[in-house]
Amino acid sequence: MIAVISVLLAGLASAQGSWCVAVWYPSSEHPGGATSIEENLDVIDVVHPFWFTPDATGNLLDNSGTNASEQVRTWQDAGALVLPSVFSGHAGYLSEDLRPSHVAAIVDLVLQRGYDGIDIDYEMFPLSTREPFSMFVEVLAAALHAHGKLLAVTVHAKTEDTPPFESAAAQDWRRLAAAADIFNLMTYDYTNRDEPPGPVADRDWVDGVVAYASSVTEPTDVRVGLPFYGYSWTRARPPARATTWEAANRLVEQFGLTPERDEASGELTVDLDVRGLPRQVIYVSDAVTLGLRIDALARHAVGGVAIWGLGGEDPAAWGVLRETRPAACAVGR
């Protein structure tokens, strides 16, 4: 096992020739997410099935479904790594008395089901969890590495260590990234559903988040979050609802609209202002947006991207990934 993990970590450390595409699934309400993965496994290197969450004591609740084992087998047979996401918005199991059993539950899950590792996506924690969360990740990393398994950690976006957003300040990137093999940045929701219309991922903001990440860890460990989704604001007022390129394009074709492109993000903007219907303002990504984002990442030498919002995306986006990715993924291979 030690030899296995040495190979894995050597691949990560020498990833100058490695650039990976990861996807979370499911990551939207659209039913087409599974098909998006199946049809594009030639370009998808890591799948994060969004299937598990801890209860109050740290035991894992399983939402994987009846065909999960078949899906995992299909993905792994195609050469993709499977690191399911454990998602949580509560933190009681990080206490000293509950942490060991929570770590053991995660490691047992990975080993019993033959996963390649795990993705920890713990969000909206208070600042008081900064130390216990770092400790948890360090202990979990050591336990997984002892079995030749990988750890991904998914974090709130920020451009400094202790920003005003408490949950981002609660994540100590230096310690988390030092322990993890893969560091996923949630570089989306720059404008969230509770704000007036604006881009989902402003390019200068993403650049600042990636620059900060690169200052505290190896850029090759970083995966930059890409939104394939968008938001639609009815009457140009919050709250917005999540939408897709497919839905926006349907409106464009149905009403003969002319989309524009937001300069700050490269996202398509659609303004549906038709007599008899409530006005809708939409920001959403398409293949051109994706190409602009990948171009902007070139100077940071990151290790790849992680996509949120599968299903209903612009089909041409997958062609952009095939044509513009700078290298194949070597992580875990």
Anisotropy-based shape: globular
Q: Helix-strand pattern, N to C?
A: HEHEEHEEHEHEHHEHEEEHEEEHEH
Strand order of the largest sheet: 1-2-5-6-7-8-9-15
- How does CATH name the architecture? Alpha-Beta Barrel
- Percent of residues in helices comes to 25-40%
Largest sheet: 8 strands, parallel, barrel
* Strand fraction: 15-25%
Radius of gyration: 20 Å
CATH superfamily: Glycosidases
Number of domains: 1
Number of strands: 15
H/I helix tally: 11
What's the level 1 CATH class? Alpha Beta
How would you describe the overall organization of this protein?
It is a single chain. An eight-stranded parallel beta barrel has the order 1-2-5-6-7-8-9-15, surrounded by six helices. Strands 11-10-14-13-12 form a five-stranded antiparallel sheet, with helices on one face. It has a single domain (2-228, 286-324), classed as Alpha-Beta Barrel (TIM Barrel). Helices cover 35% and strands 22% of the residues. It is built from eleven helices and 15 strands. Helix 4 packs parallel to helix 5, helix 5 runs parallel beside helix 7 (173-179) and helix 10 runs parallel beside helix 11 (316-324). The chain is an alpha/beta fold.
